[in-house]
Every structure is written in C-alpha cells, then in structure tokens.
Amino acid sequence: MKRNSFIVIIIVLVLAGLLGMWTGKFGAARSARAAAAEQVYVAPGEHDKYYGFLSGGQSGSVFVVGIPSGRLLREVPVFEPRAAYGYALHANDPQRQLLDRTGGAWGDTHHPVLSEKGGLYDGRFLWVNDLANGRLARIRLDYFETDSIIKIPNLQGAHGIAAVSPDTKYIVVNGEFEQPADGLVTNPAPYTSVVAFVDAVSMEVKFEVEVPGNIDIADTSKDGRHAFSTIYNLEQGRDMGSMIQFDRDALAAIDIPAAEAAVAAGKGRVRNGVPILFPDENPGVLTLVPVPKNPHGVNVTPDGRYVMASGKLSPTVTIVDTKTLKIVAEPEVGLGPLHTTFDNRGNAYTSLFLDSQVVKWNIDKAVSGAADYIVDRINVHYNIGHLQAVGGESMAPTGDYLLALNKLSKDQYLPVGPDLPENQEIIDISGEKMKMLASFPTPPEPHDAVFCPAKILAPKVKQVYATAGNAVEAGKESVVRTGPDTVTVRMSMIRSAYTPDHFEVREGDTITFTLTNVETIRDMIHGFALPDHNLHVALPPGATKTITIEAGKPGVYWYYCTNFCSALHLEMRGRMVVQPKDSTITLSDWKSGQNVTGPVPGVPSTGAQQ
Ligand code: K7E
Ligand code: CUA
Ligand code: CA
After folding, report:
1. Ligand 1 centre and the CA of 25: distance in Å?
2. Cα separations (Å) of 30 from 25, 36, 37, 544?
3. Boundaries of CATH 2.130.10.10 in the chain?
4. Which residue in 4, 48, 449, 508 is deepest, having the highest Cβ count within 10 Å?
5. Is the CB of 159 inside a 6 Å radius of any atom of ligand 1?
C-alpha cells in the first residue's frame, strides 16, 4: 500500500514536470509569435510605413501593398483590362486602343522601378516592363494611374529594366529574346539583342546598344556611368542545350556617356527610327565581364562600389568592381542564387531558388576572402525568385524589412484547387539573425518588388482629379445630334444622379459619351455601367472620360452606378432608349426638352418620358 502511493506520487511529479516543460515551451513559442505579429500589425485606422509595389507578372498589372502589414491597397491595371476600374474594357476606349496598338490587351510585368532624385526615391513615377510584348509602361504616382505605354522597337522580350541613377535620366530595357542582328529573318548569322535607353520624361527610345547573345536582368551604377546586364546565352544558341555550353557567360557593362557620344557623332545605324550602336564599330561602349555560366540577377550595392551577378546555375555570386570592371570575389552562397539585395550595414541578401532560402552575407568579408562571410540563412516557402530589402535598389536602404517573393506556396494556405497562390514573406533584417514575421498570398505572379517610404509618397497623392479641358460642367450637360447617325452625350454624375437621366437615340447611331464625375470629395467614385454594351467606366472624383459606342439593338437600357456611393446608390441610374431605325420619333437636342414628337408604337407618347 505504502509502496503503491509512493509510485503514484512519483508518476504525478513526473507528469507535472513534463507539463511544466511543455507549457514553458509553448509559452516561449507563443511569445515569439506574438512579437512577430506585433511587428507586422498595423491597427485599424493606422497606416503602413512603406508602399510596396509588386509586379503582377502575368496579371499584367502592379499590386500595391502596405509594408509591413502586407495588406493589398490597390491593383494598378497596366497591360490588361480591369473591369472593376473600367480600365481598357471597351474596344473603343482610348486606353484599350493604346494597348491594342502597342501589342495586345495582356502583358507580363516583372520589374517595377521607381524614379529617383539624387539616388533617392522621389515618389513621382514607377515604370514596369511587359516581357511578352516588348513594352514599357509608366505609372504616375500622384494618381496611381498608367500614363504612358510604349512599344520598344528592334527588341523582343523586354525583361530587365532599371532606372539610370542618380536622377533617372533613362530607363534601360533589356531584350531577352535574341533576334537577327539586322532585323532580317533571312539573315543566318547568330542572333543578338539590344539594350534600349528610354528617356524617362518623354518616354522616347533615344538609342539602343547591340549585345551579343541575349540580355536578362538590368541595373545601373549609382553615378550614371554604366548600365549592367546579365547575359546567359553568350553561346548565341537557339535551343536550351546550346545555351548552357559555355562555362562562363557574361556581365555586360554599357558605358552610357560613351554611347551618348557615339550617338551624337552619328555612329548609330537607324532602324525603325532608333539609332543602334554596334559594339564592334564603337569600341569602349560595351565591356563583357566573364561570369559563371547562365547568371541571372544583377544588383549594384547602395554605395555604388560593386555590381553583383547572381550565379543561378553556379552556387556563387560574382562581385565586380564598378570602376575597374574587374572581378574582386566570387563567394559561394548556396544553390540557385537568383537575386541579391542589401541593407545599410554592408550585408547582401541573396535568394536561393533551389535551397528555398535567403542567405545573408557580409560583402567586405567576402571581398577580403575571409572564411566567415556567411552571416545567416533563413528558410522561405518555397522556391524564392526575387527578394527585395526596403530601399535596397536606392542609395539609402533602411535595413528593416525584406520581402521574399516565393514562386510556390505548397502547404502554406488552404488549398484552392491544384493552382495555389503566390507567397510573399516579410522578414525582419534589423538584427544579426533574420526573423520570419509574416506571409501574404497574391494572385499570379509577382516577380519583383520595390518599396517607397509612405512619408515621401503619401503627401504627393492627389485627392481629386484636376479638371480636364473637356470636362462636363454641372448645369451644362447636353445631348446633341451631330449628324444623321451620330450623337454626343455630355453627362455629369454626382451623388446620386446622372444628368441627363435619360436620352434617346436610334438604332445604327454612334454615341460619344463625355462623362465627368463632378464630386469634389476624395473617394467619391461613380461608375457608369451600360448593360449589353460591354461598357463600364469608373470615375474617381473630378475625372472625365470620353468613349464612343454603338447604340446596339432597339431597347431600353438602364445605365447604373457600380460604386456604392450613397443611400440612393441603387437609384442612381438612367435610361438610354434606342429607337428602331424606322421610328417616326424626332430625336433632337435633349436640352430643348423635345426629345420625342409623335407617337411610337409600344412607347408612351410625349410627356411620359420623364
Ligand atoms: Cu528573376 Cu523576370 Cu526578375 Cu522573375 S526575373 S524571378
Ligand atoms: Cu454613384 Cu453609386
Ligand atoms: Ca550560357
């Protein structure tokens, strides 16, 4: 009996001990989680510290998120129509026609690039490429709106882009897909590519430089001297097997002032309106630095001293001195290094696609040949492509957060079919060891990101649109027949009515709407959706849009507001009446109040039109 009680007491003590250990561990884990949560928690009503701009990849757009919360703030449509924003939806929409004219209503955005002044972000513009159709777009950040799209001649697969530091004189655009050097498909000579230099203000392609093989990712030196690109097909192969034959490919360095001088001296051969410089005719313009085979990312350190080519097929990063263009070190970092970014304490962070890791390493130690240059590694989920530390592309990295842009999310979220979301992870890089804080999913497929401090950009964002020259003034709306089968409708919208709230046209008419949202208060958006006409326009306060449509089949069509704007939002609608061709109705100026004279079969006569 005595002995049994003794055993029971022992068992109870052991269990209590185990429980204590378990709850202690649990408590520690919980407080680590709470600390991480606290770092990314932005309370309701509070704002994030940074704007994050993520390329939308095959979504053809740019995603704007808050950092550190990861909250999605907006999608800026660029190369693809977005019905919700009324962007480029209707075939006659000028935005849609611009897309169609320059290469199609879809795109593949990889690299968002911010404008700089003195090497620091100035919050004016963001550029993004369209890999698929060889285009460059610019978004003006006072409106978060695409304001320019150009097709780049003589180039296919606009991939790497970069702003020429320190004052964004040019945006360089790399053609990834090689083409016949003279542009003639009959030329059997090895294919080449070009780097295009686009004037950041006028968006004109000023000149191009031919590069042997292909060109992938871009960056520029901090002093405006060099544009750097990686080349993974120095072999000038035309299939994958031939593209991986050489042990070393190259880092290309274009001397920008030398290229400008050559262009000014008339050394460019003009094709499709753009002077192209061929390196063999212009020595000194292009330098090729041999780097391990099939490199990928290229990144210049914030102090401008080094340019790094990430190895991809080689487990190394090649460090090149930007002044001498000589290799100073080639540290091993891990498997599948794709891109590198920087903090403000002399560390580089490289994404390892195959290892699914971010590796932190010390630049000076690697250059000096010290054995302990690797500082830390952190697992990411999974198969990371780009990574970006806040300010890592500028001369002023902040060293606080890093975003890992992971290609596969696998088990990280509830399954949503065989196709899972892309996964971004926010990592605290302020200490010696990296700390995983949080993750957030997005639609496909952000490649790269860039961040702008909210204190720089937020004050620049406009509250309402500046009044356009063709804006409709309240009280001066009109419906005017301008020809036998053309009608113009100048319409205003304000909570919660369209003026006019009805008008009539005839089958076969072409109608040109000029629509103005005459609200003067931020965020009071009105939509204009017209059933069965593939037409949706969303107008922020002060905005004006002009669009031309066909009247379509006879019928009564209610245009209605799509953005919930007031208690009378549902009543915010009006009628477009399309009369049959042979209608005996006389259609005249709406302002005269005499839209209808004479009886129409099936339609109430004059006076019942209100
Ligand atoms: Cu590495 Cu297009 Cu920037 Cu993707 S590219 S990852
Ligand atoms: Cu305007 Cu709803
Ligand atoms: Ca190669």
Report:
1. 40
2. 8, 10, 10, 53
3. 50-460
4. 449
5. yes
